[in-house]
Write a structure and sequence with these properties.
This protein is mainly β. The protein folds into two domains: 68 residues, Thrombin, subunit H, CATH 2.40.10.220; 83 residues, predicted glycosyltransferase like domains (Thrombin, subunit H), CATH 2.40.10.220. It is 8% helix and 51% strand. The chain has two helices and twelve strands. The protein has a six-stranded antiparallel β-barrel. Strands 7-8-9-12-11-10 form a six-stranded antiparallel beta barrel. Strand 4 and strand 5 form a beta hairpin. It is elongated, with a radius of gyration of 20 Å. The N terminus is likely disordered. InterPro entries: PilZ_domain.
Length: 193
């Protein structure tokens, strides 16, 4: 072990810093990257008022036009400035404004038009999914249950336990008892394509 301390591993050469603005914060929040109408899960690593650093499998090429959204970032249009390995840097078209202190930001929702099944009070019910996020999903029908009812959402091979949190106008919201991990959400979206 002491040999490692005497001879630290060499680090790859990093490009020179080119930012004119200081990063506001390091986030590590789940984000939604939309390119040509296709939504993908990404991790927002850092954020400044002018740009966003993201991580995802196969980032878009430099010059690509994208839309980025995260818990700490309202949907914003951007241009990919650089990409390398699993990382990319985006320049925002319009500077980011911090959300109002009284507004509770939520994780981005991903379009998920797919049929699923629900187990509610020992009944098996078919339900069209409309969108999904880390913490829950919206289905396109009302359920024979009250708010707070425990249920199981079956999507392909995945079973997600949750509670009915709202119903309105032919739709219902489910809050998962255990939020999805970013990788689970990405795999679920990829399987639906």
């Amino acid at each position: 072990m002491t040999a490692l301390l005497r001879h630290p591993p060499s680090l790859p050469d990093l490009p020179p810093e080119r930012r004119s603005h200081v990063r506001q914060r390091t986030c590590f929040a789940v984000g939604k990257l939309t390119e040509h109408g296709s939504e993908r899960v990404c991790i927002v690593r850092n954020l400044s008022d002018q740009g966003v650093g993201i991580e995802l499998d196969a980032p878009p090429a430099p010059g690509a036009r994208v839309r980025i959204e995260a818990r700490s970032l309202e949907p914003a249009d951007a241009t990919v400035i650089w990409s390398r390995d699993r990382l990319a840097g985006l320049r925002l078209d319009v500077p980011v404004l911090a959300p109002p202190a009284d507004q509770r930001p939520r994780s981005p929702r991903f379009t998920f038009a797919r049929n699923a099944r629900l187990i509610v009070d020992d009944q098996l019910i078919d339900a069209p999914l409309r969108d999904i996020a880390l913490g829950g999903a919206r289905i396109g029908r009302t359920l024979p249950a009250r708010t707070g009812t425990l249920l199981v959402l079956l999507v392909g091979e995945l079973s997600l336990t949750g509670r009915l949190c709202w119903q309105d106008g032919g739709a219902a919201g489910i809050r998962f008892t255990r939020p999805l991990a970013a990788r689970e959400l990405a795999a679920l979206l990829e399987a639906a394509r």
